[in-house]
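2024-03-11 09:14:02 DEBUG pipeline.ingest accepted 1 chain
2024-03-11 09:14:02 DEBUG pipeline.ingest length=290
2024-03-11 09:14:03 DEBUG pipeline.predict start
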Amino acid sequence: MTLNDTRELGQFIPLHYHYEMLYDKARMTAFRAAIDHMVKPGSTVLELGSGTGVLSFFAAEKARKVYSAELNLDLLDESRRLLALNRNGDKVELIHADAFEYLPPEPVDVVICEMLHVGLLREKQLAVIDSFKSRYQDRFDGDLPLFIPQATIQAVQPVQHNFDFDGFYAPIIMFQYPYSVDPRTTDLGEPVIYHQLWYDQKFGLSCDWSGSVSITAEGSLNALRFATKNILAFVHEEQSSITWHNQYLIQPLEKELPVKTGDKMAVSWEYSAGDQLSALRPVLSGPLSV
């Protein structure tokens, strides 16, 4: 795999997937509320990765100007078509550019970047923002803009998952909608936070972790559920936040382990943000002696 292949991995999500995201009410509502809160009237905004242009559209409702960079020509053409059909679409300047290289011609107040996948895998959110911050401060002396999202928190949870499909046993990676209950999954413990970062601060690209999870219910531990919670905006005056979860990831384990209440299981893995899904290979052992 070449450097360009690696860098572009998360920037070429198929067009139909972007259409599906428009149907995601939780995502749309959260981003609209966060952008409305963070973008002040008359401000200047940059979006890294236009998609269908919907987040730039939300920003254009208040912003003076929105710069929107997109490398995928199919998405660029489609976002141009869709923005032309919407009010304030003329405030959005669409640029064919690599998010790893593009800088706006003037300082901006807010940067929107939603190259997010559960576990911070697959897409290049961290690498893109890290690159942007360095290049932006080299060109424009002064403070960094605000970022949407403002922070990301990642957690892992021990679960028992039913991998039977009409009699066909298939322990495969699965995704779950985070705002409903999946009857295939039984919680065996509480989620444990393993990674958190704030985008306006320095952060590394490693999501490595070594720790333990506590078992609170008897069962057969055969999978880990990974959750990624994005703090899109802090609402300081209300001491609250606007959040959005990526889909949960169910990662099957190589072997099932019988567990009971009170057990502690050692867990570890090594991967970097933006790696492919196959890079997430948890190693689990236990129960640990207390």
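2024-03-11 09:14:41 DEBUG pipeline.report Residues 25 and 91 are 25 Å apart (CA to CA).
2024-03-11 09:14:41 DEBUG pipeline.predict end
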